[in-house]
Design brief:
CATH topology: Rossmann fold
Order of helices and strands: HEEEEEHEHHEHHHEEHEHHE
CATH class: Alpha Beta
Number of domains: 1
Shape: globular
Oligomer: single chain
Number of helices: 10
Strand content: 15-25%
Length: 414
């Protein structure tokens, strides 16, 4: 064990499992490297600039993405320290803070162990490419190349006073599709040469990133969205014929903003999907998310419900710097009921099983997405004065640690 590892034992950094974590939450055996990637998509509508003569000006849209990848053992580079932010640029209270990671900054990639499936992460509104470091480092250590997009005009550090929501509606899916379209080129040249399996891509979206992910895999816009956002309705309507990006083979949706989409026109979603939502999510609405999931009948679906949890089902744990701030800032990484580290562990467990099954073809992981293997329903009796029903146990969980989790599957209709 190195001095650094002695100072940062497992369980102390974002992405580490805590005691009692489910089986697949543990980090994998791959050494992880990380680099920052700049990608430019030319001639895109600039929602931040506002309408000019009835149309958005065009601009070259620059995306900053963070890439985690399996690296050669024996790295002598420094461990990564990510910089995220408290506050928001438009509110004038932006405050940077560090996140210590286990990845090695600019480490030499290890193509000999690959090529690897790709997982693309899309953050919330607003958010950052580091908001889900807990998932990114964990997945990369298990043999994935993970690309987390920083969505321009939707990050904490560049959130504008106006135009941000229109930018999100127009660009979330477009950004995802653009990054995914670049995978073959990234696999031919540069530091990721020979590292990627572009035809085995998984998409992970949280909140507004989940809206974008649903669009990317074939979800259709709702009529009220076009009606309520007339300024960008033209740009959105141009994509009415889009039926999903076929290179995406599986999608994980964390509390997705389904209310922008038409829940009765989800028939184009025909790939496996994994859904996470808190039953007390009043931001996107648990019943809306559940309803959309149930109606996507051409998809093999798994729904993970966190009982009494709010919206933040995917974010990193709160940094120490947030503890001296009011709840309005602290809640970005927290929940009134759930320990975020427990959420992270369950997320990593289920997501690992899901992606291994559908991107790596590891059929043994299917059992981790079924249940219960013993006990009750996971919901408890809820009757005052009555003993609580024994929580259900899902495969890979230590007895008692699946309390508060409801796991359901909905097979695709043939």
């Amino acid at each position: 064990m190195t001095d650094w590892e002695h100072e940062h034992p497992i369980g102390t950094l974002t992405g580490d499992p805590v005691p009692g974590a489910p089986e697949l939450a543990a980090r994998g055996s791959c050494v992880t490297g990380v680099r920052t990637l700049m990608l430019t998509e030319p001639d895109q509508p600039n929602a931040r600039a506002g309408l000019k003569d009835g149309a958005y000006p065009r601009y070259d849209r620059v995306l900053k993405a963070e890439v985690w990848y399996p690296a050669l053992p024996g790295c002598d580079q420094d461990r990564a320290v990510y910089t995220d932010h408290l506050g928001r640029a438009d509110l004038g209270n932006l405050e940077p803070f560090p996140i210590a990671g286990r990845a090695f900054r600019d480490a030499e990639p290890d193509p000999s162990a690959g090529p690897f499936p790709v997982a693309v992460i899309s953050h919330g509104y607003p958010g950052s490419r580091f908001l889900l470091v807990n998932l990114a480092e964990n997945l990369s250590s298990k043999g994935y190349v993970v690309i987390s997009i920083g969505h321009t005009e939707n990050t904490y550090e560049d959130f504008p006073a106006s135009g941000s929501l229109e930018s999100a509606l127009i660009h979330r899916s477009r950004d995802q599709r653009f990054v995914i379209s670049m995978l073959p080129q990234l696999n031919r040249e540069g530091f990721l040469k020979g590292m990627l399996l572009p035809e085995k891509t998984g998409l992970i979206g949280f909140s507004m990133g989940g809206y974008g992910a649903l669009r990317t895999i074939g979800g259709r816009l709702g009529g009220k969205t076009l009606e309520n956002f007339r300024a960008c309705a033209g740009e959105l309507a141009e994509e009415e014929g889009f039926r999903g990006l076929k290179t995406v083979k599986a999608a994980a949706l964390f509390a997705p903003a389904t209310f922008f989409l038409d829940e009765d026109r989800s028939g184009d979603i025909n790939i496996p999907t994994l859904w996470f939502c808190g039953t007390a999510d009043y931001t996107v609405g648990y019943s809306r998310v559940r309803g959309f999931c149930e109606r996507a009948v051409r998809s093999d679906r798994t729904l993970v419900s966190y009982l009494n949890c709010g919206h933040n089902v995917a974010n990193n744990p709160a940094p120490p710097e947030a503890y001296s701030h009011p709840w309005e800032i602290f809640k970005r990484w927290s929940d009134p009921v759930w320990d975020t580290r427990r959420l992270n562990d369950a997320n990593c467990h289920f997501l690992t099983a899901f992606l291994d099954l559908h991107l790596k073809g590891d059929a043994s992981k299917a059992d981790y997405l079924q249940g219960p293997v013993s006990g009750g329903t996971g919901a408890g009796s809820g009757i005052p004065g009555q003993p609580a029903e024994k929580p259900a146990e899902w495969k890979g969980f230590t007895e008692g640690t699946a309390a508060g989790i409801r796991l359901e599957t909905f097979p695709a209709e043939k």
